[in-house]
Specification:
Layout: H1 5-19, H2 26-35, H3 43-56, H4 92-100, H5 102-109, H6 126-146, H7 151-181, H8 184-192, H9 201-218, H10 229-243, H11 248-266, E1 275-279, H12 291-301, E2 309-314, H13 320-332, E3 338-341, H14 342-351, H15 356-360, E4 362-365, E5 369-372, E6 384-386, H16 387-396, E7 399-400, E8 405-406, H17 421-453, H18 457-460, H19 466-469, H20 473-477, E9 483-488, H21 490-506, H22 512-520, H23 527-535, H24 544-563, E10 572-574, H25 581-587, H26 617-624, E11 637-639, H27 649-661, E12 666-668, H28 674-682, E13 691-693, E14 698-700, H29 706-713
Parallel strand pairs: 1-2, 2-3, 6-9, 9-10, 11-12
Antiparallel strand pairs: 3-12, 4-5, 7-8, 13-14
Helix pairs in contact: 1-11, 2-3, 3-7, 4-5, 6-7, 7-8, 9-10, 10-12, 11-12, 13-27, 16-17, 17-24, 21-24
């Protein structure tokens, strides 16, 4: 796949800028305006005008060879005293919680509860393509008339109007610069969009990019995503191709430029995760894979970049050529691929209250957190909870095997207090429910805080049904206001529960007291018991009992989450991912009843743990797909690292399609030789090119901390 001379120049220049980027003064300008020019305005207006001021006063960057216009970079650091308290960027509520609720802070230390994480959202920028800022302005003016006397609505609509003026003013500064540079073609495009509807592919692409980088200044959070880029842009390209205005090769080069520019802005932030989802389905279920889908994937594969994240959605009855290209991406895509099943995810969304039409428009925010594009608030990912630590505390009565002390928060009855497994399991689930519900209730408090201090006027204007209701996305405007949260170590916990059930209560391999002593000693002096625990059945070995335990646990976790009704009628939703937490969560744990020793990293999401995958990848996948995927409406990822000697297009294609046919949702993994990873540890300067799949995102191996590097090296590599 050749790279043009222009794109080679752009990429080389972009990489140099990415390594040493100019610093943006956005934050400084916004807070100084809030503390100065607009300090006497009402809070809502001060927020809007200060942000608008910072947007308009950003520096303009245009190179002579640019066809996609608009660039922003990281902000310069400013002193805490330079911050205005009417903005949420200092996350004041978190500091207040640590001060006023030390128990919650301690829960966070052990990952029984975690702070909310804003971002992980994709908005309906397609409305801007079809209507322009003028169209949003008309809807705001109509809303002001419709909601007369509603002060919140008035503030919301007027805030949106202020932000629309800002994006138009900043865009106009680019027009002036383009005219000065003699770039008349680009100047004419920028005169048209984003103010007016896009008429062709160039205008649509430019409109997308200009609004995207501005929203990313308004809401500078990881996981915010373009979403269905090919789906929304294809009608414009299709029309242009029919008219002979552009060739598919020219369109592909524009996509290359877009991806390089996104990577340039994010080069230093491997975990940021702005995802593009390609392919997928139309609302009627037909395949939405189109020529732009292929062009975008080819464009991305040409470059040594990790931003944006580019994922492939697989519709029902996908074109063979599409599966072939995705298989090639998995094998030769530098460990950046993630492939997603439409049938499984749409089924889960619909079962959990999303309409069929809306469910078809799903996206992955950041790693793989599933939401509906342009219809959700941005609490799609509110942190992670270490269920294996909860199980440890339930076994020990609150005693931490890692720190060798009792924790101060509520202590459950220990394993020794029970004479049957069902009573212990019920106690464990009750303990889990206590902390999970408390965490979801905390997200409600955070949502109230964010409604006031982060109104997100521009972003909310592209979220249904904010403009209809006259509310921002956290004030009741979003159609779906669910809180997604990640439960980690589910396979480890399920295997430990199976071990407790068998070893203590059924087979009488040991008493509860003996088991707890062995765990506290990390099995030193208990080698025979350790061997027996390791030999017990595990999820991932196609053992009916072990697989059923994992299913039972996920059903109970889903029941807890779906039972919570938040302040706008939404629920909690399971987001099954592990991200960078496999070594972190493992380090918080002592030895576990399944035979795992203290400190060993946990399993990835719902992938069986490495020590359980002893019978080959087919068996492991068969176990995995016994789980109730229809409950995973926040997405359930899996990690299948493959030995390079095993990898062929036929093998990867067969594994993916079979996994999806059996109900699996998300397929990813590494294809890199372990010896190469070990060499990179010794000589990092020689391996800056080496990209690995961490867990929902890809990163340069040499940039990862040592614990993550070793976890990736030690993962099970399937070779059959």
């Amino acid at each position: 796949m050749p790279i043009s001379e222009r794109m080679q120049m752009i990429f080389e220049r972009s990489r140099a800028v990415a390594i040493n980027p100019p610093r943006n003064t956005f934050n400084r300008d916004m807070h100084s305006a809030a503390l100065g020019i607009y300090k006497d305005l009402p809070k809502w207006e001060k927020q809007a005008r200060s942000m608008a001021y910072a947007i308009v006063n950003q520096e303009i960057f245009i190179e002579p060879y640019d066809k996609i216009i608009g660039r922003v970079y990281y902000d310069k650091e400013i002193a805490p005293e330079a911050y205005d308290s009417d903005f949420d960027f200092n996350q004041q509520m978190k500091r207040d919680t640590i001060k006023n609720d030390p128990e919650y802070a301690e829960l966070c230390d052990y990952q029984l509860a975690t702070w909310g994480a804003p971002g992980h959202i994709a908005w309906d920028w397609n409305f801007l393509l079809r209507r322009g800022t003028d169209g949003i302005r008309e809807r705001c003016e109509a809303g002001l008339n419709r909601h007369r006397g509603d002060e919140k609505a008035e503030h919301f609509y007027k805030g949106v109007l202020i932000m629309l003026e800002a994006i138009e003013a900043w865009n106009d500064k680019h027009v002036e610069k383009l005219i000065e540079m003699g770039k008349t073609e680009e100047a004419e495009i920028c005169k048209r969009v984003p103010r007016h509807p896009a008429r062709n592919f160039r205008e649509a692409l430019q409109c997308f990019f200009m609004q995207f980088i501005i929203v990313m200044k308004e809401n500078p959070y990881g996981g915010n995503s373009p979403g269905r880029l090919d789906y929304y842009l294809w009608p414009y390209l299709e029309s242009d191709l029919k008219k002979g205005i552009i060739t598919i090769e020219e369109a592909e080069e524009l996509c290359e430029e877009l991806f390089v520019r996104i990577d340039e802005r994010l080069y230093r932030r491997d975990t940021w995760g702005e995802s593009v989802v390609l392919g997928g389905s139309y609302p009627n279920g037909a395949s939405a894979v189109n020529p732009l889908t292929y062009a975008m994937l080819r464009a991305y594969m040409k470059y040594d970049i990790i931003h944006p994240l580019v994922y492939g959605r697989v519709p029902a009855n996908p074109p063979k050529e599409y599966i072939d290209l995705l298989s090639d991406y998995v094998i030769n895509g530098r460990n950046r691929a993630q492939v997603i099943s439409d049938e499984s995810i749409i089924r889960a969304l619909v079962k959990n209250g999303v309409t069929e039409t809306d469910a078809t428009d799903y996206y992955c925010g950041g790693c793989m957190e599933v939401g509906v594009q342009g219809r959700t608030s941005d609490f799609l990912f509110t942190g992670w909870q270490n269920i294996a630590k909860m199980l440890e505390l339930c076994m020990t009565g609150g005693y931490c095997l890692k720190n060798k002390k009792y924790l101060d928060f509520v202590k459950p009855a220990p394993l020794t207090a029970f004479d049957n497994f069902e009573d212990f399991y019920a106690s464990f689930i009750s303990y889990v429910e206590k902390w999970l519900i408390r965490n979801l209730a905390y997200q409600d408090k955070l949502s109230e805080h964010v409604e006031e201090f982060r109104p997100s006027y521009l972003l909310s204007s592209m979220i249904d049904d904010c403009l209809t209701r006259g509310r921002n996305m956290h004030g009741g405007g979003a159609r779906y206001h669910d809180y997604g949260s990640a439960i980690v170590a589910v396979p480890n916990s399920a295997d430990s529960l199976t071990a407790i059930k068998r070893a203590v209560f059924e087979d009488k391999i040991c008493t509860a007291e003996e088991l707890l002593r062995a765990l506290d000693a990390n099995f030193e002096g208990y080698e025979k018991l350790h061997a027996k625990l390791l030999a017990l059945p595990k999820y991932g070995q196609e053992d009916a009992e072990a697989d059923a335990m994992c299913s039972r646990l996920t059903v109970d976790l889903n029941r807890i989450y779906s039972s919570y009704i938040n302040r706008f009628g939404g629920n909690g939703k399971l987001v099954m991912l592990t991200f960078v937490w496999a070594p972190v969560a493992g380090s918080l744990l002592g030895a576990t009843p399944d035979g795992r020793k203290a400190g060993v990293p946990i399993a990835h999401s719902i992938t069986p743990q490495s020590m359980a995958m002893t019978k080959g990848i087919t068996v492991a996948m068969n176990s995995c797909t016994t789980l109730p995927f229809e409950l995973f409406n926040g997405g359930a990822s899996t990690m299948w690292d493959l030995d390079p000697s095993f990898v062929t297009p036929e093998v990867v294609s067969s594994l993916m399609t079979t996994f999806f046919e059996q109900g699996g949702q998300i397929f990813q993994g590494n294809m890199t030789d372990v010896d190469e990873l070990r060499e990179a540890l010794k000589s990092p300067d020689r391996y800056n090119h080496l990209i690995v799949r961490v867990g929902g995102y890809s990163a340069r191996f040499v940039n990862l901390n040592r614990a993550l590097q070793e976890e990736i090296i030690n993962r099970f590599r399937h070779s059959r």
